[in-house]
Amino acid sequence: MRWHYRDPLLVWLFPASYALHILEEWFGGFPEWLGVVSGGSGLPRGAFVAINAAAWIAMVAAARAATRSESAGWLAIGIATITLVNGVAHLLASLVTGTYSPGLFTGVILYLPLGQLALLRAWHQSPAASLRRGVIAGVLVHGLVSLVALSLSSGVRA
């Protein structure tokens, strides 16, 4: 049986994988690594917690809405897009810097397959407008969060 892109089991795997990803980034030293590769002082640990706590809560709310309403299905697509983009970003960052980008393992093992599965399902199952809205929202949200983290790491106000 094919999973639907809004299938609760699939959608709820995203917040669970995000929790594991946050742990890998925390214990792997992502806030400090970001400072090393960006030439800044690093992302303050408090900011790392605040950003990820807010993002995880937003993801849970989006997952809940997406699994309950077809009209909110674009939120599942947005979550999948953010996850896929983040997994690719960790992989590229590791390749470009020649270092371990904390979050790489969960990014490759969890984020890439989950994001691809959900987006492939959405490609075939969602209305075109929902697919477009979700992908655009996901890319924009990931970009915004990345810019905020980089600004805080370099000491520049976002």
N- to C-terminal distance: 46 Å
Shape, please?
Answer: elongated
Helix-strand sequence: HHHHHH
List low-pLDDT spans.
none
Helix share bin: over 70%
Q: What count of domains describes the coordinates? A: 1
Largest sheet: none
Question: Assembly type of the shown chains?
Answer: single chain
Q: Measured on Cα atoms, how large is the radius of gyration?
A: 16 Å
**Amount of beta strand:** under 5%
How many strand elements? 0
Class computed from helices, strands and strand pairing: mainly alpha
Q: Average pLDDT, to the nearest integer?
A: 94
Count of individual helical segments: 6
Walk me through the topology:
Layout: H1 8-28, H2 30-38, H3 45-68, H4 73-97, H5 104-125, H6 128-154
Helix pairs in contact: 1-3, 1-5, 2-6, 3-4, 4-5, 4-6
